[in-house]
Design brief:
alpha/beta; five-stranded mixed β-sheet; 5 helices
Length: about 150
């Protein structure tokens, strides 16, 4: 399905300890306009923050869109692009290693967004020369630091 509006989103998550205090951030870009969002949790994991960054950014969209999400999280990108998420759901949230999937409630929310939007994920290299990824990293780290203040 194709929609009229195209949105680009960069996301990142940060965590100190695993679990520990964490932050997430996203930059949404539509028609050259940028919106930054961020937040955090007192006791969380890096993977949870990476996924929450995606979900919180998708919550910002007011209508169905074509969305390209850039993330440095192999956990998030591979779960979608390699079909793991659908497989996990079809196997009652049990992975191929017979362990239960973590963050099920967040993945279920992701599935809902995938029905609303045409979403493509692009894996970017973390801490490289990608301006938006670097900005997201700083926002996520700041959000994490603000949680522990």
């Amino acid at each position: 399905m194709e929609f009229e509006k195209n949105v680009i989103i960069y996301t990142d998550g940060a965590c100190s300890g695993n679990p520990g205090p964490g932050g997430y951030a996203a930059i949404l870009i539509y028609n050259g306009i940028e919106k930054e969002i961020s937040g955090g949790e007192i006791s969380t994991t890096n993977n949870r923050m990476e996924l929450l960054a995606v979900l919180k950014s998708l919550e910002m969209l007011k209508e169905s869109c074509n969305v390209t999400i850039y993330s440095d999280s192999a956990y998030v990108v591979n779960a979608i692009e390699k079909g793991w998420l659908i497989s996990w759901k079809n196997h009652n949230w049990i992975k191929s290693d017979k362990k239960e999937v973590k963050n099920i409630e967040l993945w279920e929310e992701m599935l809902k967004f995938m029905k609303i939007h045409n979403i493509t994920f692009v894996k970017v290299k973390g801490h490289s020369n990608n301006e938006y990824n670097n900005r997201c990293d700083k926002l996520a780290v700041t959000a994490r630091e603000n949680i522990i203040k």
